[in-house]
Amino acid sequence: MWKKVSAIVIPTLLAVGIVVYMLYRVWDDLLLTLEHAVIPFLFAAVGICVVAWVLRGFRYQFILQGLNIRKSLGFSTACIFISQTANLIVPARLGDFVRMLILKHEGDATYSQGFSSLIVERVFDILMIAVLGAFALPFILAVLAVPDWFITVIIVPLVAGGIFFIVLLWSGRLKSENRIVVIIQRMLDEVKQASLNPRSLAALSGTSLLIWLVDVLVCFAVVLMFQEPVPFGVVVLAIVIGNLVKAVPITPGGIGTYELALALTLGLAGTPAATATLIAVIDHLIKNLVTLIGGVGSIYYFGDWSMDLLKKVFSREIETEETFGG
Fold first, then answer.
1. Please, are residues 56 and 46 in contact by the beta-carbon 8 Å criterion?
2. 295 touches 82 (CB < 8 A)
3. How many structural domains compose the chain?
4. Are the C-beta atoms of residues 244 and 265 closer than 8 Å to each other?
5. N-terminal to C-terminal alpha carbon distance within the chain
6. What span, in angstroms and rounded, lies between the C-alpha atoms of 240 and 149?
7. Which of these, 121, 63, 118, lies nearest to 96 by C-alpha position?
8. Which residue segment(s) compose the domain that 241 sits in?
9. For the segment 25-35, what is each residue's pLDDT rounded down to a tens digit?
10. How many CA atoms lie within 13 A of 159 on its CB side?
11. Which one of 78, 91, 138, 277 is most buried, counting C-beta atoms within 10 A?
12. Using CA atoms, how far apart are residues 57 and 73, in angstroms rounded to an integer?
């Protein structure tokens, strides 16, 4: 029991601790900064964030179609909403399993197909935001001195993505009667089916880049809200670094680590610490609140049974054999 509780409580306390520390160190300047906020940009940021979610739903619908799973845009968007809402509470992205269970419950997909759809989404998410960072970095380096680890954080996903696609191309040669190898082979075949053809590569790469650019616009609207002259390229780099750091599941939903990385990047451009902190906190707060509202709406969309699935994830009652065995 203690292990289950500590697995959630400790990462959550770490996330809260980071945010509280960031706010505490600039507390005296926070109210002054808030007084000069232009509120209409806040509503613009919320609206842009909703658009990003629709785009994510469209991309996931396309991924499912690549696996011969025909679902509506509303269904695919709700799937992402509910799993990402779970990720705000449980660590290590265990909330993603909700999506697999929903697809299985609807009788249209195996657990293997559900997991494969997640792999495709995550790979293109991480790879394309790293590509966006690689495009932005030369322009930023011309005007700012960035830490060496920024470059490493961007290069590592690009290299990992290249290796992943090489493995996909090679995977067809893998032959074995071992049950685990057979399961892995099946998932790799499904991932290849959904992503490794010219149409899918172009569509998934294009939509992923668009999703991240819209995500950048949310943050840029928050920047405008505080009338801070931060170049758009710096905001791009901030979102890239923030999300790549957030991809390491240290805290639920990357809360704390995302804000810290975002504020640090904005600070490199001379943004005052109080303003950088507020931009980072409000940007992530908007995205998480839209996620939470969408998640609650998705529970009503799917019905009461979806609450049982969430309880399974929260209590870690998902069995590995059951999940990947069929």
1. no
2. yes
3. 1
4. no
5. 29
6. 13
7. 118
8. 2-324
9. 777 767 677 77
10. 6
11. 277
12. 6
Q: Which of 41, 51, 46, 47 lies closest to 212, judged by CA?
A: 51
Other C-beta atoms lying within 10 Å of the C-beta of residue 49: 23
**pTM of the entire structure?**
0.90
To which H or E segment does residue 238 belong?
A: helix 232-246
* Whether the Cβ atoms of residue 240 and residue 140 lie closer than 8 Å to each other: no
137: its two tokens: 């970095």
Q: How far is CA 219 from CA 20, 89, 173, in A?
A: 20, 23, 45
CA dihedral 150, 156, 159, 160 (to 10 degrees): -150
Predicted pLDDT at 6 = 53
**Token digits of residue 166:** 């090489």
Q: Compute the distance between CA of residue 245 and CA of residue 150 in angstroms, rounded to an integer.
A: 10
The burial class, CB within 10 Å (0-12 / 13-18 / 19+), for 170 is exposed
Burial of 326 (0-12, 13-18, 19+ CB in 10 A): exposed
Give the type of residue at 27: W
Residues 6+ apart with CB under 8 A from 204: 59, 62, 63, 120, 124, 195
pLDDT of residue 65: 95
In one-letter notation, the amino acid at residue 80 is I
Q: Is residue 303 predicted with pLDDT exceeding 60?
A: yes
CA distances from 182 to 104, 176, 178 (A): 20, 7, 6
- Between CA 182 and CA 200 the distance in angstroms is 25
Taking Cα atoms as reference points, which of 222, 200, 326, 201 lies closest to residue 284?
Answer: 222
Give the model confidence (pLDDT) of 207-250 as tens digits: 999 999 999 999 999 999 999 999 999 999 999 999 999 998 88
Only one residue has tokens 């509120």, namely 39
